[in-house]
Amino acid sequence: MAVRLPRPRRFDVRVALAGLLGGLLLWSVGLATRPHTEPYVLLPGRWPLLLPLVIMAGCELLRRTAPRTALLIGTPAIVLDLVTQGNLVTILMYTDLMYAAVLYGPPASAHRIPRITGLLSVAGAVVPFAVWREPEALLIGVITGLVSFGPAATGLIVRNHRDAAEAARLLAEQTALLAEMDRTQAVTAERARMARELHDMVANHLSAIAIHSTAALSLEDPKTSQEALVVIRENSVEGLAETRRLIGILRDSSGDTEPVAAPTLDGLVALVENARTNGLDVTLDAAQGAVPAPVELAAYRIVQESLTNALKHAGAGRVAVSLARCDGVLTVEVTSPYGDRDGPTAPGSGAGLVGMRERAALLGGTFEAGPEDSRDGKIWAVRATLPVSDTAEGDTP
Questions:
Q1: Structure confidence by residue, pLDDT tens digits, 287-338
Q2: Model confidence over 353-369: pLDDT tens digits?
Q3: Phi, psi of 325 (to 5 degrees)
Q4: FRET label pair with 155: which of 174, 250, 283, 386, CA 20 to 30 Å apart?
Q5: What is the CA radius of gyration of the chain?
């Protein structure tokens, strides 16, 4: 099976052509690196110079696609050039092959070649000097170092700088990717928080509007219709005002708008009164004491959403709201009658339960909601436990 060599790069083709033409130019004018009278010139004359020149030019075509192969083929060619009168371009192309083998070759070769060429350079200086005892013999090692070790060491330095630059580029890309992931997560978290706030602020008023408007349409009693219209107007005005406040904060990009104060547990009394106005029979038992702001906001929103669900779905009967703090945990419980509702209802999407569960989870608490049996019959119970002592003040559910 024939082995297909990779296609050479365009720059390598140019280097090979330039080397071949330059070597032919020196050959045509008769310039050589050694006279034919030297004793180690075994192949004198002009024509033997062409074979190593052509082989070296062919190896240049593989300087990047197959650098080790090019160096292995080029080494016998440079040895062949040494027994001729020599061509300077052939030597220069071999130094380029040595440089390319270290720069573009495998990491193992990149570190092995400089060590081998360094040892050869030292041996090329020590051995001839020990044999001939002439200072000029040291020049053999110097020339060997210039032709082999110098290009190899240069290639290793350039490769190390290139690898460091590539590592820095990858690190920058990873940093940018992590920053983008953090930004995406922050945007997602902020969108979820905004969705919870908007739902909790508006759902209660819209549910009351839907229920009372349905009652007004289904009953022909003018007094009942008048009372329903009053409740509808109050809830629509309050819901519109809260929506405008939230939209104003979202649209303000300068940061000059003062943030709306977050509701606190002191507002549960007003929240319960509003629920009573909307037609619920609500009792409140709050004995929680002072709690951190994030826990306070989460507990308020859970009670608010529970009352909204009771307004939409609860049967006739009493709705009980209780808050108690014990052993570093605030327990929020809202129970309402469970069963078929005689009056009008409002549709639900389930987003309220999801929002309450998310608020509890963000504080490391628990949440559960579902029907239960009690002494007074079947009820719908909402329970949330919110850690108080270990909650960070800066977290906002």
A1: 777 888 888 888 988 998 888 888 777 777 888 999 988 888 999 999 988 8
A2: 888 888 888 888 999 98
A3: -115, 130
A4: 174
A5: 44
Structure tokens at 362: 């963000």
- Alpha carbon distance 194, 212 (integer Å): 27
Pairing relationship of beta strands 318-326 and 366-374 according to DSSP bridges = unpaired
Edge to edge, the sheet with strand 329-337 lists 281-287, 318-326, 329-337, 377-387, 366-374
Question: CB within 8 A of 309, min separation 6: which ones?
Answer: 336, 348, 352, 353, 380, 382
Within the chain, strands assigned E span 281-287, 318-326, 329-337, 366-374, 377-387
Q: Which residues contact 310 (CB under 8 A, 6 or more apart)?
A: 275, 280, 319, 334, 336, 380
Nearest to residue 264, comparing CAs of 240, 288, 237, 247? Answer: 288
CA distances (Å), 146 to each of 19, 96, 110, 205, 255, in order? 19, 12, 18, 88, 67
β-pairing, 281-287 vs 329-337, is: unpaired
Here the tokens at position 243 are 């929506």
Tell me: the pLDDT tens digits for 90-112? 999 999 999 999 999 999 999 99
Nearest partner of 301 among 168, 203, 165, 190, judged by Cα: 203
Report the length, in residues, of the chain.
Answer: 397
